[in-house]
Write a structure and sequence with these properties.
30% strand; seven-stranded antiparallel β-sheet
Length: 340
């Protein structure tokens, strides 16, 4: 009896041809599961995308902070102004108002002539002061208008107002003059001054430092970046075809030497750089109508004029783009995030 019951139970789990019956999901159940997975994925994608974009902005702000700090340290080490050039992405509208590539730039080293026997002869008559450099025409590429020259390793630095093939016209420092021998040959030193003249930069791209490329989809939004004193005096460009960079220069003391954009030079003002998202640049193909200024996920990188200290701060969620002063004030009030 026991054996017969065992055989009967075994046969009850087999089909007509002796095959085991397998339990699984029906087609309808599979369709429902796939639909639920698709729905959950659709719900999760926007959140994941926002997290990725926010991470790109934070990484870009950290990179800009560190890159500026490296230029500041370089200026203190070399004793010459060193800075960062924010290159406009393109000359086409509206891409000239965003930056994704940064370069370190510096003023050339002091120039004291092309040979060991180079010299200058100084001539003065009343308030007029001129000098003739022995290198002649060779100095045209080295000595520029606006540079400063010192003779015999002492005395004041005189600003050069003209260089005609080595014949210099100088702006004398009347209250700091010291006796100069008229026409006597003496050594000289020329210190270059950082500046932009139109589209010509009197700066050298630093060979020791590689360009900084910001993470994908992160940009420096030049539309709202600018200076503290006058919020309307920002770095945006309204002229298509203009690719002049924005240059932030540090002095050997560590403070700001000046900020250059186009033919402008400003000093003594705090710098505000808005780190945002590419699809928040007005007019781009991905523009979704929300500017970086109104996006709380964007960040500010600021540079203090006197100390040159670089901070990263949160962005306010302002109501419209005209509230740029409120957004910058909010950044000033926030505790520094230390370039996180």
């Amino acid at each position: 009896m026991v054996r017969t019951s065992s055989i009967t139970a075994k046969r009850s789990n087999t089909g007509a041809k002796g095959r085991a019956i397998r339990h699984g999901l029906t087609l309808i159940e599979l369709v429902i599961v796939v639909a639920l997975l698709g729905l959950l994925t659709a719900i999760a994608i926007p959140g994941v995308q926002m997290a990725v974009e926010g991470r790109a902005v934070r990484e870009a702000a950290r990179s800009v902070n560190v890159y500026l700090g490296a230029a500041r340290n370089r200026a203190k080490v070399t004793g010459r102004p060193v800075g960062v050039a924010f290159q406009r992405f393109s000359s086409d509208d509206p891409y000239y108002n965003m930056c994704i590539t940064l370069h370190q730039v510096e003023t050339p080293p002091s120039y004291a002539g092309g040979t060991m026997s180079s010299y200058a002869q100084v001539y003065f008559s009343g308030s007029a002061l001129t000098a003739q450099l022995s290198d002649g025409a060779a100095t045209v590429t080295k000595v520029k208008v606006g540079d400063h020259i010192q003779f015999n390793h002492q005395g004041p630095w005189h600003r050069i107002t003209e260089n005609n093939n080595g014949a210099l016209t100088l702006y004398p420092e009347p209250n700091r003059m010291y006796p100069l021998l008229n026409g006597v040959a003496m050594p000289y030193e020329v210190r270059c001054q950082p500046r932009l003249t139109g589209t010509t930069a009197i700066l050298e791209r630093a060979a020791y430092s590689k360009p900084l490329q910001l993470p994908l989809d992160a940009v420096v939004d030049l539309t709202f970046s600018g200076l503290k004193a006058d919020p309307s005096n920002h770095f945006s460009c309204a002229t298509p075809g203009n690719t002049d960079p924005v240059v932030v220069m540090f002095s050997p003391s560590g403070g700001l030497e000046g900020v250059y954009y186009g033919s402008n030079r400003k000093d003594g003002e705090k710098v505000y750089l808005l780190i945002g998202k590419r699809d928040r640049i007005p007019g781009t193909s991905a523009d979704d109508g929300l500017s970086n200024l109104r996006d709380p996920e964007c960040l500010w990188v600021t540079v203090s004029p006197r100390s040159g200290l670089i901070n990263t701060a949160e962005n306010a969620q302002v109501a419209d783009d005209s509230q740029i002063t409120a957004a910058r004030d909010f950044a000033d009030d926030q505790q520094s995030m230390g370039g996180r």
